[in-house]
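Researcher: I'm preparing a figure for a lab meeting and need a structural model of a single chain. I don't have an experimental structure, so a prediction will have to do for now. The sequence is pasted below. Please return the structure as tokens so I can convert it later.
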Amino acid sequence: MSDTVDDMMFELPDQYREIAGQARALAEQAVPYSDRADESDSVDPDMRRLLADSGLARLAVPERFGGLLPEVDSLAITVVREALAAESAHLDSLFCMQGIGSFAIVKGGSSAVQEAWLPRVASLDAIAGLSLTEPDVGSDLKAITTTLTRDGDMLRINGRKSFITNGGDADFYSTLAVEEIDGQRAYSMVLVPADASGVSIERPHQIIAPHVLGDVIMEDVVLPADHRLGEPGKGFALVLATLSTFRVSVAGAALGLAEAALVEAVRHAAGREQFGVTLDRLGGIPAALAMSWTEIEMARALTYRAAAAAARDPRANLHLSSMAKVASTEMAGRVVDRCVQVMGRFGLVRGSRIERFYREARPMRIYEGSTEVILDSLAKQLVQRMAP
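Model: Understood. Here is the structure written out token by token.
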């Protein structure tokens, strides 16, 4: 992280402007494929090729494993997601999951596992996945039932992970499981290659904004001991490290989506006449457009501050990342809804960009920490800090 960046900055330093420019160029290249890819439930080959060719997937890993920067940088990830999400949720997801799915390897992988997988993540030769949630377990990860047991010099894993991004297309899954240590229930992470014997995929669900999504089923999957990620029983430390680094980037994606929706609404309002004037001068529409612009800029200020702070010290600034995630995703929901209203019946047309944005905005308030769960955690921190 550059010393010229602090959490009070209002302008991006040149390094991040260059990265953002590369991301905007990639988003423009993706335009011909966006409609198709954003309705797909498997990785779009053209999007994968464009992302690989851009080199931006190299931001997902540290420089020593083929990455672009010395360490994974929350601000860099955030500005890229802002640009990509403005054009394609599919491309945005493919980019960010390379980091989210592999970060536990960066932080806790053995040298052999790091060398085997992280350069392939950087080049997009391997697609990453993170498997935490289960059919009956969402936010309450301590209730997971997937088990990890030691089997001689090997590890054995059994369980079913559900609603896993890249499920079915990933080459590996960083997986949270429960194991018994000294008679106590403990939580550990393990790397599960997709081609390991006993791994299978089902796709029982799809969401309103189609997504590469699957259930990962592990039946007596036996793995070498060096596939353990981090120390036994310290799995939540790796989950927290991942959230601390990448949660704020969801806010970046929400910014890009909201701004793209506002562009659609402004163009429509400025070009359509009713009652002898263009819509942008009619009734409450000017206020709706101006308030949307204002809310986007408010959210951007918090998001950039939080992302810069997370790049310096992710764990110490998780509260800022969480605030930015809530503020920006809730903002995106309001802005996109206003934009649909401004566009009237044209905002309801199936297959239009604004309809796609409307569907894509809704899941942002749920994944990587729902608004309610994050607010509950923030409230507890607030009371601890300020109550007498």
